[in-house]
Structures are given as C-alpha cells and as structure tokens.
Amino acid sequence: MTRPTRTDVAKSDSRYGNVPSVTRGFARGTDVLKQYFPDLAVSKQKLRRADAIACVRMKRQEASQNLGFPSRPFVFCGLPVKRPQMGQVMHERRNGHFLLQVTGHPSYGLPWGQDRLVPLFLATLAIRQQSRMIRFRSAAEMLDTFGMQQGGTQYRRLVAAFQRIFGATIFFGTDTQRQKAMVVHQARFSFMSEARIWYSRHADQETLPREFQNEIVLSDEFFREILAHPIPTDMEAAKALSCSPAALDLFTWLSYRCFVAKGRERVPLFGESGLVSQLGSADYSRPRKFRERLEGWLNLVRSMWPECPASIDSNGTGLYVDRANAVLPNGVNHGPE
Q: What are residue 89's phi and psi, to 5 degrees?
C-alpha cells in the first residue's frame, strides 16, 4: 500500500475539497485555518507568527526587505531575556574581546525581554533621520512596527520599557593585544539624554498634532556608536521574533556573524568566549538544556532564512557558521522615516 500524497489526502476527505492551492497565490494563514479547519486549536500568537514568517520569506524572495539597524553592543552581546531577579541591577556579557555591562536604574531595574525592541527602534530611526533628535508621530507606531497588539496592557508595557531603557547605563569596551601593547577602547553611556513621549488613551487616535510629536534625544555617545557601526538587519524578521527575544538575539547575531565570516568557522558554545556568554539568555546549569533551546531558536531562524548555514556540531559543543547574507545586498526597502 502506497503512502497517500498530499493531493490524495485532500481528495479523500470532503473537508479539504475546497482548500485553495498555495500555488495560486498568497492567503493569510489565519484565514485559511479558520475557514477550513475550524476545530484546529492554534493560539493567536502562533497564527500571527506564521503570517509574519510568510511575510519575511515573501519579501526576501522579492528582494524588498525592510532594513533596521540594531546597535553594535546589542548585536555582539544580548540584554537579559528573562526578568532579572529582584534587586539585580547589573548584567554582563562577553563576546571575545568585547565586554558589555548594563546597569539598571534602582527604581526601574534592568531592561529585559521585549525591552530590546526599544533600542532597535531608536537606532533605526536615528539612521533613517540622521539626527540625534528623532521624532515619531505616535507610541502606536512602535507597537505596529513589531506587530504588537495595541491596547492598554501593551501601552503600559511600552511605558515601562522606555523607563528601563532611559534609566540604564551602558558600558561597552574592547581590549585587543597588539604586538607591543594592549589597546583598550571603552565607552560608558546612556541611551537617551532627553525624551518626551505622548501616550494616547484612545486607540483610534493614531497621530498627534505636530506640536505633540514624540521627541527623543539620543545621548551623543550612543548616536556616534550607531553612526560609526551601522549593522543592517531584517525588520520583518525582528517583527516575527518580537515575542521570542532569545531567537531575535540569535538572528541578529547570526546575520552579522555570517556576513563577516571568511568561510566555515566554529564558535564554541560554552566557556568565556562561548555563545552562551554572548546571548542574553539565562545561565544554564546543564549544557544539554542550552543545546535544546539553541536548536529551537535555530529552527525559528531557519523558518525565515532557509539558507542560514548555522548548525550545531556533532559533539554539541560548537556552532558552525559560514559566509552568507541574511540581508540581501540589493533591493532593500529602508521603510518610512
């Protein structure tokens, strides 16, 4: 007995008889599932992610990616993925000779989780507007940029995220050994020096009058860091991964790491220079647990970037990377300013 093909299955069950072929055009995954599989229980979050992943792949195929620009310190080293413990105000990550230390405000705490979307949003606007003072019309614009639902809960989370980001102090340094001397480059800075953000309580009020536009003045150090080291990423991918901070960290890290790779290279998973010390993921007591999580994050990355050459080695202690482009060199869309 031969195994039925997808076509055979569709024809053998009347429920599938009218399901449109995917070769005839694009349809929202949410609409298709609800119409033809009403009994299938899939969370709204997973359905939104499926739609976002389809959008990422379609724009990649059409060479119309929307560019964003994460700042270099948070490409090399991630912010905390999970909520830090009560009273913890210091976060440290190391990537080779790069060191990142983030000190949280005593009242607001450390930035964590989806808070990492705020510096990505700010750095992207700074590159597009080429100014320390960046403007955007509504707080809802950021929620829409990353596919986040608009409502009271999300607005409150956004307010708290800006407070944690505004109150944090960043230390980012490098130390390299040259032939005759150690060269040390260090910078301590805040993200913003001034912020005026209006949060409308009315969901239908998408924009505010010009005199009430949101204005944020980036610190001079943060702005110069962004301009000196612009690292492009796919904003649609960031949107798809906005609810998975660790996978988002891995995607931006791999985008850069594969771009600069000279060929197939191996990155250790553990130790001071290991990947576990670079990402913002929590400390893992067992290596096996980190490998399981890493494989899950890689699967998410591959769902949007099928050509991603990253893979865990056979003994589970390293990650192979190779030269590749997550952001295509031509046909990118810089998006609205």
A: -125, 10
- CA–CA separation, 72 and 75 (whole Å): 5
On the 0-12 / 13-18 / 19+ scale of CB atoms within 10 A, 182 is: exposed
On whether the pTM is more than 0.85, the answer is: no
Q: Which two tokens stand for residue 232?
A: 């492009």
Give the start-to-end residue ranges of the domains of the chain.
Answer: 24-62, 67-321
Dump pLDDT digits (tens) for 78-108: 999 999 999 999 999 999 888 899 999 999 9
Select from 190, 196, 135, 147 the least CA-distant residue to 165: 190
Helix, strand, coil distribution of the chain in percent, nearest 5: 40, 20, 40
Q: Which residues pair with 109 in a beta bridge?
A: 105
Asked if 219 and 73 count as a contact pair (C-beta separation under 8 A), the reply is no
Residue 271 and residue 96: Cα distance in Å, rounded? 11
Contact residues for 229 (Cβ-Cβ < 8 A; gap 6+): 71, 72
Other Cβ atoms less than 10 A from the Cβ of 180: the count is 5
